[in-house]
From TrEMBL:
GO terms for cellular component: plasma membrane. GO terms for molecular function: lysophosphatidic acid receptor activity. Coiled coil: none annotated. Belongs to the G-protein coupled receptor 1 family. Keywords: Adaptive immunity, Disulfide bond, G-protein coupled receptor, Glycoprotein, Immunity, Membrane, Receptor, Transducer, Transmembrane, Transmembrane helix. The keyword Glycoprotein applies. InterPro entries: GPCR_Rhodpsn, GPCR_Rhodpsn_7TM. It comes from Gouania willdenowi (Blunt-snouted clingfish). Residues 52-311 form the G-protein coupled receptors family 1 profile domain. It is a multi-pass membrane protein. The lineage of its organism: Eukaryota, Metazoa, Chordata, Craniata, Vertebrata. This is Lysophosphatidic acid receptor 6-like. Pfam families: 7tm_1.
């Protein structure tokens, strides 16, 4: 009798634990708000991102005569932004209709380009920060490193690194058909738990380390060292007309955009991966992570609109080129008038000397 009671108690406990586990695994998803949020934000980003980046392309290719290593990094950043911006109308259509009619290939390419833009932007922004650090802290010793050829090599390495991680991840995703909604195909949100455990968890560790933590540390360290250099009195005499206020403004804008756009998403991505791999369990945790994820994703996508601000504040060459174009005509007129005055003065002096010689020659002959 005692034995039977113990067995029944064990069965009851196991049943309760099983029910609790089942409830934990079947938490109610509270992220339905993401569809109108995504469609609205992505539409805005598409319009502003397309306009601002096309203007940047025009400046880089048509207006900018002098190009250096900084503009090389910026042109690659523009290319990364535009590749992603061109896929946004497809995402907007999907999040409005909750249906993907464009085929599996475009779904996979869109996912790949999102990660390409995200981590490509972080790495190219880091290249700009490191380049500014070398130019200000080590202006003479870095001359051999800061060349357009080396900048192109670095950009090529960034593209290879980013694409080698984003393309395999994007092509893991397979569009799936809904059982509840007839003829509806899902995209962007149907990585299975098995894929998260076998592949995506490793990808998250790699991209968080190489694509986020290292660039973040480099941006912060380079900015601190630049600020320390600007505090030294000899920096002004060494750099000529070095505008400390302007450089400080560049650094603040650069760090703000980097931190604002990328920290929320990448921090939440770690917790999202832990939830999807069942490392973190509990409906409350899953609800919080799933609620934050769409908001952080929208903030990350907005970097396509903010990057052109960095182009303006960072590239002194661009600003000087624009100013040079507006001043070239007036400068030419001033130089021409000065040359004309000089030539007229010299001709007048020559005529006076000839006249004087003739007068003196006439006086001597009389």
């Amino acid at each position: 009798m005692m034995y039977n009671t113990t067995v029944l108690m064990d069965i009851s406990v196991q049943a309760l634990l099983g029910n609790a586990t089942e409830l934990t695994n079947n938490c109610n998803k509270s992220d339905g708000f993401k569809y109108p949020l995504y469609s609205t934000v992505f539409s805005i980003v598409f319009v502003f991102g397309l306009i601002t980046n096309m203007v940047a392309i025009y400046i880089f290719t048509c207006s900018l005569k002098l190009r250096n290593e900084t503009t090389t990094y910026m042109m690659n950043l523009v290319a990364s932004d535009l590749l992603f911006v061109f896929t946004l109308p497809l995402r907007v259509f999907y999040y409005i209709n909750i249906n993907w009619p464009f085929g599996g290939m475009l779904c996979q390419v869109s996912v790949s380009l999102f990660y390409t833009n995200m981590y490509g932007s972080m790495l190219f922004l880091t290249c700009i920060s490191v380049d500014r650090f070398l130019a200000i802290v080590y202006p003479f010793r870095s001359r051999m490193l800061r060349t357009k050829r080396n900048a192109k090599l670095v950009c090529g390495a960034v593209w290879v690194l980013v694409l080698s991680a984003s393309l395999p991840t994007g092509f893991l995703l397979q569009p799936t058909t809904s059982d509840k909604k007839a003829n509806a195909t899902f995209c962007f949100e149907n990585f299975s738990s098995k894929q998260w455990k076998s592949h995506l968890s490793k990808v998250v560790i790699f991209i968080e380390t190489v694509g986020f933590l290292i660039p973040l540390l480099l941006n912060v360290c380079c900015s601190i060292m630049v600020l320390q250099t600007l505090r030294r009195p000899r920096t002004i005499s060494r750099g000529g007309k070095l505008n400390k206020t302007k450089i400080l403004r560049m650094i603040i804008v650069h760090l703000f955009i980097f931190c604002f756009c990328f920290i929320p998403y990448n921090v939440n991505l770690v917790f999202y991966a832990l939830v999807r791999t069942k490392t973190l369990k509990g409906c409350f945790v899953e609800s919080v992570v799933r609620t934050i994820y769409p908001i952080a994703l929208c903030i990350a996508v907005s970097n396509c609109c903010f990057d052109p601000i960095i182009y303006y504040f960072t590239s002194e060459t661009i600003q000087n080129s624009i100013k040079r174009k507006s001043q070239v005509s007036s400068t030419y007129d001033v130089k021409f008038s000065e040359a004309l005055q000089s030539e007229t003065s010299s001709s007048l002096q020559c005529s006076l000397r000839n006249l004087k010689a003739k007068v003196f020659h006439g006086e001597s002959s009389v």
